Amino acid sequence: MRISPEEVAKVARLARLDLTPEKIDQYAGQLDGILGYMDKLSELDTSAVEPMYTPVDHVSVMRDDVARKDYSREDILRNAPETDGSFFIVPRIV
Asked: Structure pTM?
């Protein structure tokens, strides 16, 4: 696939980028190289390749999400400015 400097200028205009003619030519060449590489990749036969989410095995470094009760209701309400014994009391907003 060939991308022209006019197409690069159009995309730059849509993205509200002010590019010099030299930059437009430079980006046209770079984008043409990228699209050429993508065309080359699309020629590969991948019919025998099983689809996968990622080619790299990732190990989660996060802890398991386990529900637990670390604080009692009284501990939590102790620092509240105002409570009714079970809930926070907050100003009414209408």
From this structure: 0.49
